[in-house]
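Whether sequence alone determines local backbone shape is best considered at the level of individual chains. When preparing material for the folding task, we compiled for one chain both its residues and its backbone structure tokens. The sequence in question and its structure tokens are set out directly beneath this paragraph.
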Amino acid sequence: QVQLVESGGGSVQAGGSLRLSCAASGYTYSSNFMGWFRQAPGKEREGVATLDRLLGRTWYIDSVKGRFTISQDNAKNTLYLQMNSLEPEDTAMYYCAAGGSGWYVPPSAAQYNYWGQGTQVTVSS
């Protein structure tokens, strides 16, 4: 049974930083593709950052480029999202995704098989 457990969300002021973690268990890493998505109230879930674990390539949505960094620790089976210079527009529920079916730009939630429960990020101005 695959489990993805996110942590690290919270409330910060604009300009602050948070680091999200996604601990994976029961996941055989048969797929190379993992990522972070977010969903704000009334909006569709959108890809924020994705990682090709084999080739090391990354993708970021334009609005977070230069501010967010996706990374992994294979020894800990953990995916991270370092978020700096946070803006109120970053406020959303953030989800870890795994088991992606391929490298797609931009990514689609439908391409991922496994999801965490989400962690809330709230940025105040």
In short: The chain has no helices and eleven strands. The CA atoms of residues 30 and 99 lie 7 Å apart. The mean pLDDT is 94.
